[in-house]
Design brief:
Length: 354
């Protein structure tokens, strides 16, 4: 059984496994994002504050340089406090593009064991899996190896990330149950509605949404501002391209203005409205939101303190219904290596680790 629990801040993802509806994302702490140095006292302060606020689920990845180690420090610190609530730690298994042909059972076990060691855990609550190429065989075999590690007690649940419906079916047909698919989903990017939501409805798989704030673009910071000539990090570059797919800066500003009006009517930040919109979508279990400052996390949890009416949703949808894109399947734009979205991707992050 899956679904919302009696606590509006929790969601039962599978069986008795409950997660917070806001998940703290670790990408912003990675070296690849070029922001805060992983392991800093400031980063640990943000993580502790998140858990204090009831955000007890944390997302990281084998390819986020330094983040599993940072989370390991945080887990040790959190467990040393009195009455510490249980944490849920989600990581990923994303073998490098250049390594796909060599991925076998021992490779999968080595990467999972490495994550366990970095995090200081005996079992990973959720491992989210991605395979870069359809023209390299082995996707189903690697998924089955994750299932074997689940049976061995090293993984509690297996999930996917950025997987199309066709790929999900191939993995499920191989005998691996996927409890979730982590995908980009926001008021700017509704590609999951093209087919993934229907698959979730028929299988019970749930969606974990990243990018619900579009890298920070869906916040008060960008209200009534011109398009920025320079962008400070990879996330902003990525989501600025999504804004172009949505219809350009003017269309984005009209949507942002509507979100801002709704936010003022509810007495919350614009970001809270953007997060609430995604949380209200069918089959969405949680949103994954990065925060590098305590104040950001405190504002993010405001999304759980109010509700959007049907009229609010209709006002937002009026802007979305006239947007020309993004279109296609989840992660299809990013998978086109010749396109502008694919050209900014990095495919060998494990080997790039320092």
């Amino acid at each position: 059984m899956t679904g919302r629990s009696g606590d509006p801040g929790r969601y039962i993802l599978a069986g008795d496994y409950s997660i917070s509806r806001i998940i703290h994302g670790g990408w912003q702490f990675s070296a690849g994002h070029r922001l805060s140095a992983a392991g800093s006292d400031d980063a640990l302060e943000v993580l502790v504050r998140a858990a204090d606020l009831g955000v007890t689920t944390f997302d990281c990845a084998d390819i986020y340089t330094g983040v599993e180690e940072l989370y390991g420090q945080f887990i040790r610190r959190w467990k040393s406090t009195s009455n510490a609530a249980p944490l849920q730690i989600h990581t990923k298994f994303v073998p490098d593009d250049s390594a796909l042909q060599g991925v076998d059972r021992s490779y999968v076990q080595r990467i999972v064991d490495r994550s366990l060691s970095r995090l200081g855990l005996d079992c990973l609550d959720l491992v989210q899996y991605y395979w870069w190429r359809d023209d390299v065989p082995g996707m189903e075999d690697a998924a089955r190896s994750l299932g074997d590690l689940q049976a061995a007690g090293k993984i509690r649940h297996v999930a996917a990330t950025n997987m199309s419906v066709e790929r999900l079916r191939r993995i499920e047909d191989a005998g691996v149950r996927l409890v979730a698919n982590q995908v980009q989903y926001s008021a700017l990017d509704r590609r999951p509605e093209a087919g993934l939501s229907g698959h979730a409805s028929s299988t019970g798989m749930r969606l974990l949404s990243y990018g619900a704030l579009a890298g920070g673009f869906l916040t008060d910071r960008w209200l009534e501002t011109p398009s920025p000539p320079d962008l400070a990090n990879r996330s902003l570059v990525k989501y600025r391209l999504i804004i172009d797919e949505f219809g350009g800066w003017a269309s984005f500003q009209r949507l942002l203005g509507e979100l801002g009006k709704i936010a003022r009517e509810h007495g919350v930040d614009l970001a809270a409205v953007a997060l609430r919109f995604v949380l209200d979508q069918p089959h969405v279990a949680a949103v994954i939101v990065g925060a590098t400052k305590v104040g950001q996390m405190e504002r993010n949890v405001g999304a759980l303190a109010f509700t959007l009416s049907a009229a609010d949703h209709a006002r937002i949808r009026r802007h979305l219904d006239i947007a020309p894109g993004p279109s296609g399947d989840v992660f299809a734009l990013e998978s086109d290596r010749e396109g502008k979205h694919g050209r900014i991707m990095r495919y060998d992050l494990n080997s790039e680790r320092s």
